[in-house]
């Protein structure tokens, strides 16, 4: 989800270059789920490519997708990848589908496979944000935009559905809550549950309404955080209970999101909600984009490891972040002089 959201400014640039241009997104199921909320995307094709981490479709699905691409007779393809991914498998698929023009980064010379080749130069001494990377890619073919915010639009139905869920859990719909998202696909990007619970308790103790979010696969993790809380009855557990649109509506109306570096961080950036990002030093290109935020991490010699599991076994880049710092960062972002809300200060013990 986050990868698709971080391409939306580049998609906007492609649209601005030719206002009548139609864009079809080819992405995984999780990436494709974002498409209905992104106005720059006109259509979507979901495919679990074997060259992408996690799910993988059987070989016959590859051929079915290739046939679909051939049938639709696309004029061009832009392959968006993070720098550690090769664009060549996707380029071969597009080439085999007869797409005449293909734009992509590539470390290797793709020769005739990619018509518009941008040589891969990352990793750079100073990391380039993923959003900027994709804007730079389409900029090589003169597609540009001055509006570089991420794109995600919720609907009235999303907000109405959210209100029903909130009512069922005894929560008012006015907003301003603290959201806590404890999950992340990679274990290396998860703040320890015991520490998350301590930070949440500090926020609760100051009178904040704390709502926990997560997908179906993260329910057990959220339950663990709640079990470790000193006041579990005061927490609202919405893990696995919201559609993507309802999650967006929840984030849009929240006062702040406290999250590991995962998809909801980029949703918050798109929707303008401040973020406390518990940022494991794995992928420095994926910080919150153009939104008030605090990055919390402990600097370690093994920073920027790009690993899904901590190779050192200590997870110190996150586990050494003290819970009071998490709560304090949230309070700083919640402070609103316009509403006369005074600052809250937590001192380390």
From TrEMBL:
Domain of life, per lineage: Bacteria
GO cellular component, one term: cytosol
GO MF annotations, alphabetized: ADP-heptose-lipopolysaccharide heptosyltransferase activity
Keywords: Glycosyltransferase, Transferase
Record-linked Pfam families: Glyco_transf_9 (PF01075)
Protein species of origin: Bordetella flabilis
Protein name: Glycosyl transferase
GO biological process: lipopolysaccharide core region biosynthetic process
Keyword Glycosyltransferase tagged: yes
